[in-house]
Amino acid sequence: MATFFNSPIPIPFFYCLLFSTLVFLHFLLLYSLSEYQHYITHPSHSLDYHHNIDDQNHSLNFNNTQISRSYSSRSDGFVSITSKISNGASTNGIASVSPTNYTDNFHVRQRKQNKKSNLKILEEGLARARATIMQATRIRVVNHSTTGEEDFKFVSRGSIYRNPNAFYQSHMEMEKRLKVWTYKEGELPLVHEGPVNNIYSTEGQFIDEMESGESQFSAHHPDQAHVFFLPFSVARLRRFVFKPEPSLPQHHLNLFVTDYIRVISNRYPFWNRSAGADHFMVSCHDWGPNISIGRPELFVNFIRVLCNANTSEGFLPERDVSLPEVKLPFGQLTIPKLGALPSKRTILAFFAGRVHGRIRKVLMKHWKDKDAEVQVYDYLPKSQSYAKKMAQSKFCLCPSGWEVASPRVVESIFAGCVPVIISTSYVLPFSDVLDWSQFSVTISVQNIPMIKDLLKSISISEYVKMHRRLKQVQRHFTINRPSKRFDLIRMVLHSVWLRRLNVGLVS
Ligand SMILES: *[C@@H]1O[C@H](CO)[C@@H](O)[C@H](O)[C@H]1NC(C)=O
Ligand SMILES: *[C@@H]1O[C@H](CO)[C@@H](O)[C@H](O)[C@H]1NC(C)=O
Ligand SMILES: *[C@@H]1O[C@H](CO)[C@@H](O)[C@H](O)[C@H]1NC(C)=O
Ligand SMILES: *[C@@H]1O[C@H](CO)[C@@H](O)[C@H](O)[C@H]1NC(C)=O
Ligand SMILES: *[C@@H]1O[C@H](CO)[C@@H](O)[C@H](O)[C@H]1NC(C)=O
Ligand SMILES: *[C@@H]1O[C@H](CO)[C@@H](O)[C@H](O)[C@H]1NC(C)=O
Ligand SMILES: *[C@@H]1O[C@H](CO)[C@@H](O)[C@H](O)[C@H]1NC(C)=O
Q: pTM for the whole thing?
């Protein structure tokens, strides 16, 4: 099996490199710790940046008709909520693997408990959760006063969900049950921490939340866990391994991850028993998808939570999770909410950003300096404020850049500016539960010349509804530490939870 150290680089050179990298890391680590301490105390504001975005694919529904059908048609205890894993069930080995013995002489104390009964308890809990979720899809009005009347009202007033009842019930079941084991293996700064500010912030914030010891979802022992988190940071690998040593072959990223999986699958039985289907990673870096290059067979079931959710690059909506990209201002957990009323929004459509990628070229060609109502800039003049422009615009154009995800979508949501997704093969965040058509507009690349007509054809009353829905959507893209109900971190966990519900592990 390939390891990080079986590399084409001569071993002494590699260790030399490693050592110098580590010395360097030590200082950067000190720097990053101070950076980290600032993140609660150091306010600064800047929405001015230029980045990218892409298209959507709604094929992954939290479609509960489908849930009940595939669930009730199976009698072997294996459950499928979305199609992919159930179709692959007989071939990917998930349904038939059983726990094996293991010696855990490292971080986890051996328990005298019977492993099979642990797994059985977990699976019985998941089965009850599935049953309750499915019931919620059938019974339209459920009185949820026991779990939070206000929160139930919040969800049930919204048309932003594919199925409000199912979403609500599923979220409550998750809060009640879900336990996540975060592997202890690996060293700082590549593992256990990530960037908590700027465009990759969701990667670091999620890792940090799971490592904080404050998450109600943290399992005390891996035997209690429904899902297993591999807390390495692709952004950190990029910064601390590839940037200092640009000549390092790129497949070292894949080797690092493969090696991490080798370690945990040798030490514990969990990876092997599910072939990785209850294991996940989180990355907002463009290179996130690259971890699977090289040994695709290892990653067939592994859940990748990625900002770079590009279906043309192997992102599978049924297995992977689309992570929102949020450009967190340094020292903050929130981005400004800009609440201008629809009637105060004088610009029809706005975009400012660098001409990255194919789609923005098309956008510039048709709209740069062409129209007072559709304002498209490659560089916003210094005298103008990006945030103010968003607050004055009805629609904010979110075209693809070099990669599919962009913090622009979330910024639009907080600016009360209806996002216009111009992209191909982008799976929008939380699109398994959120109905993006209720609060965003999708325009195909071919229709870029028609942007103005298409947006003008949306009636004022429809626009006002979309604008109002953005307010509700904001809660799902808000970062709280520790996380709170329905916020971004819990929505990410909920997406992972849904994928776990797809898998039944038999003992
Ligand atoms: C849910 O699935 C059913 C059956 O596959 C399909 O007919 C229906 O259109 C789907 N609903 C949504 C909202 O996707
Ligand atoms: C697993 O471990 C138990 C207790 O140590 C032992 O009795 C049993 O034979 C082992 N099973 C396998 C398959 O090795
Ligand atoms: C739900 O519970 C509240 C208070 O417990 C009650 O006032 C209300 O009538 C109930 N709603 C339904 C539909 O049963
Ligand atoms: C990751 O993939 C992208 C695009 O496929 C490529 O440009 C980049 O060099 C890759 N990086 C690594 C480390 O594999
Ligand atoms: C998991 O599978 C790998 C590859 O087959 C094997 O080397 C490893 O020992 C297994 N792990 C455990 C804990 O049995
Ligand atoms: C999505 O992936 C395809 C295939 O690698 C690539 O050609 C395309 O540029 C990507 N889209 C974006 C916006 O990065
Ligand atoms: C959306 O997903 C479906 C099913 O995975 C696929 O057939 C379709 O090509 C995808 N559409 C786009 C635009 O990627």
A: 0.75
